[in-house]
Amino acid sequence: MTSKIHSLNDTYELNNGVKIPVIGLGTWQTPDGEVAQKTVENALDLGYRLIDTAAAYGNEESIGRGIKVSGVNRHDLFVTTKLWNDHHGYQKTKAAIDESLTKLDLDYLDLYLIHWPNPAPVRDHWAELNAESWQAMEEAVQAGKIRAIGVSNFRRKHLAELLKTAKIRPAVNQIYLNPSDMEEDVTAYNKELGILSEAYSPLGRGDLFANETVVSVAQHYDKSPAQVLLRWSLQHGFVPLPKSVHRERLESNLQVFDFTITEEDMAKLDGLHGAGKLANDPDQTDF
């Protein structure tokens, strides 16, 4: 557990030496077009430097425009996107990487992730296709198209299988992480392997804001439930990716560096397993 994160400018060093900001903007369900573009512009204006999207979100082009219009130096940004389930395999992954670069209008990606380990259509040969996709991703790193590669929604068995053939160890595993589901087995394995755990849905799915324990802890620190949940993530050493399209909430989500949750209160939050939704089992999804 760490409470040594003091500012928005703090970073973690990934296992390949690349630095990643400690908090970022998630853009799942952010509508393509003006909303996505303006959200990115607002976020960058407020000081966010990590922007997380995915091919499946359908908003890469708008996010790319938001980055361009913002005027922020590309080298000061950390942009993540992800490989969707219909592009697993060597050739398809190569094409998907180039397509994302084109849509985002970027020369390189800071992080590229396999979005899901075991898509329904390829459930009988998922490990083989992940190995192929990973090879294409490793080649993209060598070619300078990607700075770091990783995975999302991978459990222990998926990571172990990938590591049988991987030449580059995943730098990140982005998973569903909040007090309702800490995914302890996955985060422990990530830590053991030197893989950073990123938290998508760090605020839950809206189901934790009214939780009695979360509200009580928030009142104690004169903070909002969202701010306490984000601070909880930071103190566990996770990178939270909160989502919002509202500037005031984007700003509020950054006001998490001026307080520290005590060990006692962290333990209370850690005890909330099942208080909200749990992570989807990647081996049981229907997509």
UniProtKB/TrEMBL annotation:
What is the annotated signal peptide range for this record?
none
Q: Which Pfam families match?
A: Aldo_ket_red (PF00248)
Report the transmembrane regions from the record.
none
Query: Which stretches make up the NADP-dependent oxidoreductase domain?
Result: 23-272
UniProt KW keywords: NADP, Oxidoreductase
Family recorded in the similarity comment: Belongs to the aldo/keto reductase family.
PANTHER family noted in UniProt: 2,5-DIKETO-D-GLUCONIC ACID REDUCTASE, NADP-DEPENDENT OXIDOREDUCTASE DOMAIN-CONTAINING PROTEIN
Name of the protein this chain belongs to = 2,5-diketo-D-gluconic acid reductase
Native source species: Lactobacillus melliventris
